[in-house]
Structure prediction request, 494 residues.
Amino acid sequence: MTPNQTLNGRYRIISSLGEGGMADVYLAHDLILNRNVAVKLLRFDLQNDDKTIQRFQREALSTTELVHPNIVSVYDVGEDNGIHYLVMEYVDGTDLKQYIKEHFPIPYQQVIDIMEQILSGVATAHAHDIIHRDLKPQNVLMDKKGNAKISDFGVALAQEEQTLTQTNAVVGSVHYLSPEQARGHLATKRSDIYSLGIILYEMLTGRVPFEGENAVSIAIKHYQNQIPYVRDFDPRIPQALENVVLKATAKNPFDRYNSVSEMADDLSTALSVRRAEDSRFIAPSLTDETIIADASDFQPNPKDVAEVKAISQNGSKDQQSTKSKKRRNRHPLRKKIAFFFGLLILFIFGIGLAFYLSFPKVVTIPNVTGLTQAQATVVLKKHDLKVGQITRTGDQKIDYKRVVETLPRKKKQVQAGVAVNVVISQGPNSYVVDNYIGNSYAKVAKKLRAKGFKVKKRSIQTTQFDRGKIIYQSVVPDQVVVPRATTISFSVTK
Prediction:
């Protein structure tokens, strides 16, 4: 479409807003209602695909029921000379992908505020039994007031028809693809929850968890690889906030939140002081280990088989000999008893051998105190041990980012393969961050720099506060940090 073209004599095209794998989006003016709108045109190569058109129309019509401040409103669905289009609310701003690039690092409270808006919109869609299927930052629009609005409900189902080999259509989505979708299974509400967890991951780290040479390799990582810990990227992130990411992105859908509302409830308290001691979330399905034995473990030893066979054969001969010499032998049952007693001994020996072989290997917890987390991981793996939960604590003796202790402790004997929890030092000079909102930036910055903090400033134009006052801080109050390893950003009035 070109500027000044008109759809059905009503929507005059102004300019292009962007191109996607399924559709092209234009800014247009509604000549009847005298308002700007966004018009989404189904791609020309899909205009003759009956299935895609039907799904496009059906989903578009169903989303007209979704009236919510955090969902882009759908105004109209139509066709003009074979061109299928969707008319939506025009959001003057950018998408969340670009917003993250421009504003990262985003203060944790702001991350939560944006996510709560997105979750509220998705919850409404799920209440109408509408699954988005393609949630990603590119489909979340941010207006100039910081409000989030979810888009593309109208083409989400149609996009399901595309394959992973169509890189241009899917590469933007595969970074947020649930493991079950990557396997080719149908998307569910919990699939949307997984995508929401990836979005939260990106808002906290500025990056997606998995990269690859192509869409297929990324999809494989989604159902094979453990999602990286956000606290490994930034140890200042509260454990409770990381847990929201981990639970939402659990490989098993049943380990995720039961609903978007449950995820929102958990997220709302993630920065609470009472949750400061939360331990790292581990998916329930990962705590139950199933041991799969090799069939070869149950194959009898050829030597034992030969011995048993020989005994059996000798027993048969002895029985025959006993019959022929019954009259001459004073104890005709003696040899039979000896034979069966021998079998019993062999049987007991076999059971004892099997028990011994099945008995778990015992290893000793090595001393990894003072090592880095990476070094400790290597040492533990060499001792047939796994790394469990990573927690952090202030320590007066152990340097920053070095191992303080393990749980179970060093020299303790445990079963091979168990998870060993590792405690990492935050250094000897931990600091509790105050609430600086409303204070003078100059005084606060001087105080924090003297303690070793890196301080950044972003000026905000506003008339609600006096000049030079802090109106936002990136590190939440009461959070325990290490000054020399912490950068704190402030929004300051100008």
Summary: The first helix runs from residue 50 to 63. Residues 155-172, 288-330 have pLDDT under 50 and may be disordered.
